[in-house]
Amino acid sequence: MTALVLQARLDSSRLPGKSLLPLGGKPLIFRVMEVLGLIQADVKILTCPNDSASAFAPLAEEAGFSLIPGPKEDVLTRYCLVIRQSGADRILRATGDNPFVFVDAAIALNREAVELNADYACYFGIPCGTGVESVASEALLRAEMEAKDPAEREHVCPYLYKHSEFFRLHRPLAPSCWQNPALTLTVDTADDYEQAQILFERLSSLSIEERNLGGNIIAACR
Questions:
Q1: How many domains does the structure of the chain reveal?
Q2: Which stretches of the chain drop beneath a pLDDT of 70?
Q3: Staple 174 to which of 3, 21, 125, 162, CB 3.0 to 4.6 Å?
Q4: What is the pTM of this model?
């Protein structure tokens, strides 16, 4: 069973409240869920800090996501709460500041991870903010027990890729059609948000399926 799990928060220091900023007439976090909704998974879950659950709940419901809140800083434990409540044996991990995820790349990556029985998988070489991670639930549960560094708990997966002696890692260079490592499409600052608005408008004439293909997003950035 695969769970697509999106993490989000409201108190970003560089762009406060960015999850609720409008993008094409809808909150940014809704646009992220809209994109991720194109990726097949058994369940789709938005996980957020306990103190922001009321703000996210109606948006998650509108997008067809379940909502599972948890600790604010210990995001690793938040993911493990999702695992325990959903029963998922694989997690597709996404973050709430990435409205331009390459859907075709995410599907391909997860297929490779499943075929290889990888504990952790991600692509290198794709633009920052366009990828997801495919992670075995068993590996995250082990990390929850063993990871001590606060950064490993806040960022969820570092314990896995720092310990290749324990985990099966799949971190290939992405196919050339998705490569552009110099490009950044995550929304982290006010300038990033302005760029996102421009890019979303450029893509608005396409269907949602076409809009979220990696090649079309890269082309719109030129």
A1: 1
A2: none
A3: 125
A4: 0.96
